[in-house]
Write a structure and sequence with these properties.
Elements (H helix, E strand, L loop, with lengths): L1 H11 L2 H15 L8 H14 L2 H18 L4 E2 L2 E5 H15 L11 H16 L7 H24 L3 H28 L7 H4 L14 H20 L5 H20 L2 H18 L2 H21 L6 H11 L2 H20 L10 H10 L17 H34 L7 H13 L9 H21 L8
Antiparallel strand pairs: 1-2
Length: 469
Amino acid sequence: MIENMRNISSKLVSAPRIIIFLIIILSILSPFYPILLIVPIITVGIIYINKVSANKWMYGLFLAVLMSGFWGAYASFPQIPSLFLFRILLAVHIVGFICSKKDFTAIKFLKIPLLCLICWFLYAAIAMIWSADVMLSLSALYFQFEISYLIFICAYYITSWTKLRQVLMWVTWNYIISIGIGLYEALSGKHLRFSAGSLLNYADSRPTGWLVNTNDYASYLVIYFGLASLHLLTSKKKSYQLIWFIMLVAVTFLVIESHSRTGFLGWACIVFLVLFKVLRIQYFLIAVFGGITALFCKVMYSSFASSGETSQLVESFTGKGESTQDRMFIYKFVIQLCQDHHFLGVGLGMTPRYVFDALYGTANIDLSGSQTMAAHNFWLTIISDIGLLGFIPVLIFFLYFVYWAVQGYLKNRSLKAAMPMVILVGFIGISVGSSSIFEMRVIWIALGVGLAIINLLQREKNGEVELIK
């Protein structure tokens, strides 16, 4: 009798029944406490860790960090939008990386740029000493750490062309989905939840994709076009070439729709750089000649600024007089701010506060707002925040990147060697056109991938990685 009762009780408390019971409880409580949804994620993660080696697990987590970086606030708990999946995974990855066995031999060629990132971060932390707002500086320091870590892990984990292909596969399909979202916004006038049009409740058909404002979206489309092209055009599948051509047309439409001047100029340069590598020289010259001829005919035989995409393109460059004046005022003010502080910096993250005060004053201000305004210039912001001394490691990092990007583009005929140059051109446009470049993790992921490709090209030259066409 007792034995029978034990058998019955063991069946009642078997593992499947316990799991089903916990799932039922979780489904009841999760609408009220969405944070509980993290429980099954952690459970699956623990099971996965036990069955997979630490290195493979960390590499898989690296890919998850990159992908969640693209999704931003859209991969967050509905009631806690500031708790991104990206930030959770990044914290888990940092802990895992610290505890795991490390091997830096594959990135020995990148000692200079990586040391520059460390020096930049350390000096920025020191610059908090003379900051007038510690909380503002802490926020800026976090984003600077995020930037440095994203660049580092891209270089650290993308150590072969095979791994680069895997990363590009995920990046490309995320890119295509984002293009689809942008087309939906441009054609319907509706936006996603965290778009500036939805957050600020104003009518604007310009696309934003997964990002907040339209200029950032144009920057994202421009800087990732080259990487998506590398994945599609080097594939053996013929259908990918058709997908690439459709992507080219769609991105051209979206960049024009965004009304972003730096976005369009960067887009034109990047298409030029990609086509020069993809096409034979005679076909490239024919394509350039055909494009110039078509544009000339449009100007001569029709009203260029009458309607459609051409009018929007013209308006992007001629219809932003007030915006241009504000931008020039900000630049002059920031330069004067640097001079007033003897190029020692005003304190990490403090430049947006000074710019806001210069534009709107200090009286009759809505205290519920952020009371900050970006300088719309990455280079000036760094010099203003932490001074010329803090700018030196940033300058060395980009001089290194420029040197090897130009070397790769001129001396290597393959499309993969053109990617650092393409990413660099896109970044230069973003650095003087975006108001939120420090928070745009997708841009720094692209820069990290570019640095990884530079490393792979050097290791390929030394016979350390496999050759690919």
